[in-house]
Amino acid sequence: MSENKALEVRKQELTRAEGGEMTRTRRVFIPRTDIYEDGQKITVVADMPGVDEKSVDVTLEKNTLTIRGFAREAGPENASLMYSEYVSGDYERSFIISSEVDRDKIEASMKDGVLTLRLPKAAAAVARKIQIKKG
Amino acid sequence: MFRRFSMPSLWDEVERLQQEMNRLFNETFSGRLSAFSGFPAINIWSHEDGAVLTAELPGLKVEDLDLKAVNDTLTISGSRESDLPTEGVEVHRQERGFGKFTRTIQLPFQVDAEKVSATYRDGLLTVTLPRAESERPRRIAIKAS
After folding, report:
1. How many separate domains does chain B show?
2. Would the pLDDT of B30 be above 50?
3. Does residue A100 belong to any structural domain of this protein?
4. Among the partner residues B38, B91, B99, nearest to A36 by beta-carbon distance
5. Do B79 and B12 share a structural domain?
6. Any chain A CB within 8 A of the CB of B94?
7. Does residue B21 sit in the same domain as residue B75?
8. Does the structure's ipTM exceed the value 0.85?
9. Range with the lowest mean pLDDT among A87-101, A120-134, B54-68?
């Protein structure tokens, strides 16, 4: 499962379903994300370069986890863009979390443009694993 | 009679085809050109005193990043380690890339290597590349004859 993932240049843009449109006209990208789970928690790690801890927004509504990041403009002042390979923009992505999560104990941290979320499983969900006996 | 009507429509058709081809070609290649040039993707901003290069490099350690400026080139190299635990986890998704990268960028001017500075904040690398003193533009006074 853990195949080596090479570094990629391209960013994938978010395409929005009909009816929903952002009020801001900035481009919105889908952050590249790793998700892994152990017995105690689900960990979500998302690359959102240009986003600091103050401009990230994480919500968990029912079982939909949504992460949003608002990136600052990277360009220096009094300079003009002479050559461009990437566009800076905001980030947004939603996931459906299948396990029961202990909502009060969710931890989020933002470091060097990487968001790390730790979603501890609720006690009920941890204990729900049923041992199967060899018959 | 026949020519008068068919010729314009034929040219219209050719033109339409050409536009369609251009569109297809642009869609296929515009986004990928950067992939050919390497990782990381860069933006270069120019101003009077030189240029500023920015790159999106989330989750790197500053000590793993290496910058070299020689004459008119800048080499960015570094590596990103995978922070995925190797044992005891079930991986649902692995999209974040890792590994080594190196990229050399040629600038349209000689860089004053002594004065190059760089910052790394929120996963963004910003490199300030001042133009060498000998290449600074000189204002030329125009004399009225």
Report:
1. 2
2. no
3. yes
4. B91
5. no
6. yes
7. no
8. no
9. A120-134
